[in-house]
Write a structure and sequence with these properties.
About 65% of the residues lie in helices and about 0% in strands. With about 110 residues, the protein is mostly helical. It has two domains: about 15-45, no CATH class; about 50-110, no CATH class. The radius of gyration is 27 Å and the shape is elongated.
């Protein structure tokens, strides 16, 4: 039996959450899109001025200070993020037993089809 474009065969309607991509759910596409936007936002770089106004005035008064100004900015940023990194590591080690089941349930909820 042949069908024309005018009279196509009847197919079951797509299930909720499915679009033209078939097995890919809308929620998965939204999560991937959101992840790509977040990644693009994180990779977008702007010059960061970590120095306060007084530090900047003191450093830029001498030629040697102007040369080390960029390295000083980097050092200040490293010192800013180091406590968060240490705290995050300690919290992960201490609460691993409580975090693992939660993350497992969250990933099952987000990634596995229902």
């Amino acid at each position: 039996m042949s069908y024309s474009f005018i009279d196509p065969p009847s197919y079951p309607p797509p299930r909720r959450g499915e679009g033209t991509l078939g097995h890919v759910r809308l929620r998965t596409l939204m999560l991937v899109g959101l992840g790509l936007v977040a990644l693009g936002w994180l990779l977008y770089s702007e010059p960061v001025l970590a120095q306060c106004a007084m530090c900047r005035a003191t450093v830029t008064q001498s030629p040697e200070g102007r040369q080390m100004s960029e390295k000083l900015n980097t050092a200040i940023l490293v010192m800013f993020f180091a406590p968060y990194l240490v705290f995050g590591t300690v919290a992960t080690v201490l609460f691993r037993a409580r975090i693992t089941p939660f993350v497992t349930r969250l990933l099952r909820f987000l990634l596995l089809p229902r």
